[in-house]
Amino acid sequence: MERTIVQINTENWNCKIPIIINLSSKYTTQLQKPFRPLFMSVPRSSYLYFDKEKIFTHFEPVLKELEINNKNFYLQFNSEPVKWNTPIGVFFDMVCKSTNLPEKMPMNLQINFEKPPKKFIEFENETELYNYFASTFKESCFLLAKSATITQKITENIMANIWNGLKNLSFDEYKRSIQPLEINYKEQSSLAIRILLNKKCIQKTTKPVNQETEELLTLLDIFKDLDLIKEEKLVPMTYLIQGITPDPNIPLAFLSASFSHPDGFLYLIITTLN
How far is the C-alpha of 15 from the C-alpha of 11, rounded, in Å? Predict the structure, then answer.
């Protein structure tokens, strides 16, 4: 079983999402000739911010032609801004795969050089994103262990190595970096789960075992807590974890061990269908 979990972890790290980035239509009408889009293949566990310089360099000629002095930009899918601090796979599952609309590949994003929406979190540099990730990772560790002992083990050097593993897309480097923390997702006293229910984030900490029956908790228990089971049936909805729809009877402990993101959280994307 352990080998299977490692294999699943590795597959998640190697899984990529094809993306095409086009200019927003507000710019295309001002250009003398069409500007070629940018095609990318982005790891679903990573952050699009890592490619920010590459994206800017590609579209820099447009800025010069239109005399736009703003180097900051944001990306959006339809009208949904791409959050720099959200794993791109989570965003993709939320806006592309979780609806009843036909899934289209590659994911079509538009680039805007205007001021982003109010709720959009801007990061001036990579250090700010690193600090956000470090805070999230430590939070998940605390929730898993229900103790500050594990967070006290996270030295600056360990955190930097974890970050480098994520940036370098190296699961081996990441796994090696977290070994001193002795994180065992299958044997933790609780599980760290982030649920995106109709795009609204709900953070949930739950024990992997029912304290009364001593049975392993499953996705069905999550759905019951969210009132998504009516007359012993799931309400019409889609749900995704790392791009797939697992059997609802699979234990949460196994899902946490196999499909948690590098920040330590298991992301469950749910969209109810009316």
Answer: 6
